[in-house]
Amino acid sequence: MQVPVGVLLDRYGSRALLVTGLVLMTAGQLGFAFVESFPAAVTARAVVGAGDAMVFVSVIRLVTAWFLVRQGPMVTQLTGLSGQLGAIAAAGPLSYLLHELGWTGAFALTSSIGVVLLVAVLALVKDSPYRRGDVVTIKLRALALSVRTVWGNPGTRLGMWSHFVSQFSATVFALLWGYPFLVQGLGWSTSGASTLLMAMTAWAVVSGLVTARLVARLPYYRSWIVVGIVIAMVVPWTAVLLWPGVAPGWVVVVMAFATASGGPASMVGFDLARSFTAPHETGRANGLVNVGGFTASLLTMALIGVVLDLSAPGGMESYTLDDFKLAMSVQYVFWAFGIVQTLRYRRRGLAHLARVHPGSVEQLRAGRAFVHPGIGTEGV
Question: Is the same domain home to 96 and 162?
């Protein structure tokens, strides 16, 4: 959904997309409360996903419009981290509601939150602090065709590959393979594994704030900061995978925390894209950037499963630590490819800025954020 959402975002603005996204999420959640078959449940979740696809990039576009360029990295990090904290905060109440009200009652009640948020968006959100927003008034078909032009900008690709290389490992570990790797592979208790996954989110908050400060102070080295975080992730993963037998607990914790740092690092991709993108193209650019990490995540999840199936055809109960180590090694393919592409488009991106905006590279070297022509500088 990210590419079409990016096109719609540049045409209609953040407020309209947030409203549409909330309507879809509320409808999907309400439908999920009453379904009685697996296909219907999948359809309801797909509707929720379609709505969710509209929310994050719309908020990132609001950040571009409402905040100073030098404030952007911190606000972007806080935006992403608040979403992660929301997921944790919702887990306890949802579990309680499921126990007290049952499936239908719990999900029907939670869908009503979407109505409250919809009213809040209608009452409070403006696309821009300026008299006129930066929405594009040309026809949607022409706007859709322009995605090719936005994709041709090396800054868009630099942001996408930065997102690609840094985000996937944390997503794969937290959403699917981390828990069985810890419990069945490394022999951790279920409570210990759950606690570590929760602690990873807390660490992501800390590392996100540090990353934001570094990005704001060193705009010329943003892509190198991403690569550095990825390398810091690869080193403890290598230690865990090459350790004879089960790695010590402290090594696993270091690996998990380094992996969690990849989430905040991926947010740098949006800041990179903003340096290269005019305001009326930010929706399409951010949509393309957001595709990177999730594409890598889905491919990695699938390939880990394929390797496990090939190494241990007996199914989940037959997986050993060696099987998990072999399967988790799939990540190196994506890390290596992502680093190469990030550095490749860093070089191309800097050449593009130097050619199109003379003096911009020198400005970045001096530690001053480059303000793309057309982006407001006075802030709110």
Answer: no
